[in-house]
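Fold it.
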Amino acid sequence: MCATCGCSDDAGVRIVDLRNADGHAHSHADGHAHSHGDGHPHTHPGGDTHTHVHPDPGTETLTLETRILAKNDELASRNREWLAARGVRAVNLMSSPGSGKTTLLERTVTALGRTVPICVIEGDQETTFDADRIAAAGAPVLQVNTGSGCHLDATMVAEALHQLDPHDGLVLIENVGNLVCPALFDLGEQARVVIMSVTEGADKPLKYPHIFGAASLVVVNKIDLLPYVDFDLDRFTHDVGLVNRRAHIVTLSATRGDGLDEWLHWLAPLHVRSHTAG
């Protein structure tokens, strides 16, 4: 049981490689990531998340939460180093379900895929629906099904990275739809993007400040629907600034393509840096 959010452990995690014709999943029952002689980041099973009985249950929970996050951060650091050594940059896309992440990824793969090496890690509790769409768009993709888990973590991403084996370019990670838990878990990414659709309401930055506070970029999607919904863009922009003065805001319609160039221009420098790293 994950003390940070109450979701289950990695026992139900499955990774499905859409590059295999038979859809065979290469996964481990314990969600354990390990190296295969290629210097890939790895973890070792042990008692580092074991808790001891304490008189105060609150102390026990806090101790477990601290250990879980510390272990995750250590592996995320290894992921980041491994990616940097290969000239790869990872972007973690976070949002509520239905914000348009997958549609934006489809557009991105179509627009950049011929000039920028792109592979995708898809996170969902069940199904390969989103991964199927990305595969159809032409990008190598892995689906990580988390079971009852409500976020990706560095262990899951490490295993997916080993299977994708990227060299150069971008790894785009579509996290599980959730505005809470994904903010807590570093995956080894270079940048975090929060995607909001105008149908969700302008109050989300103050209701979910942690995820907006961690964002490098905030994308406001489905702007083609602005005439039909009650969404105050000025209020939203102001409130993002209250929790994160550094975040850049891009408005677009992934469906129609409005504003897509600004998103692609923001993403492109990440690829340029991958050529100059080291």
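The longest helix spans residues 57-85.
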